[in-house]
Amino acid sequence: MSQMIFVNLPVADLARSKAFYEAIGFTNEPKFTDETAAGMMLSEAIHVMLLTHDKWKGFTSKAIPDAKKSAQMMLCLSRESREAVDAIIADVAEAGGNTDCDPPQDYGFMYGRSFEDPDGHNWEVMWMDPVAVEKGPEAFMEAAAE
């Protein structure tokens, strides 16, 4: 079995969050969905678990930060082209998310934009030129310095 990632996010309104993620391309997995959680698949390897605050509290005693006021992490998704980056940002805007909450990044070899979901969780969507990826991190640093 290949490795997968399950990103767990506390959400204030499960139905609203589920609808938002479906609108931007995630698919609900009914086997992992009930009145306290919704399993959302982006790919065979990438899953987002939307958890009500009560469900979240069953996993950790730490307080749930207000993601609209503070950032604990930034989640990043890759796309196959600049146009695909712009397309998901358009879907986010149409679904009611906050787009370009951080300034867009365009380094030529790398292009990225950001969004927040209804709860304020920060996502970045980016594309990297496959040729630049093959050259490695030094090429990134040189191109970014230009």
TrEMBL record:
Annotated InterPro entries: Glyas_Bleomycin-R_OHBP_Dase, Glyoxy/Ble-like_N, VOC_core
SUPFAM superfamilies named among the record's database cross-references: Glyoxalase/Bleomycin resistance protein/Dihydroxybiphenyl dioxygenase
Chain ranges of the VOC domain: 3-128
Protein name in the entry: VOC family protein
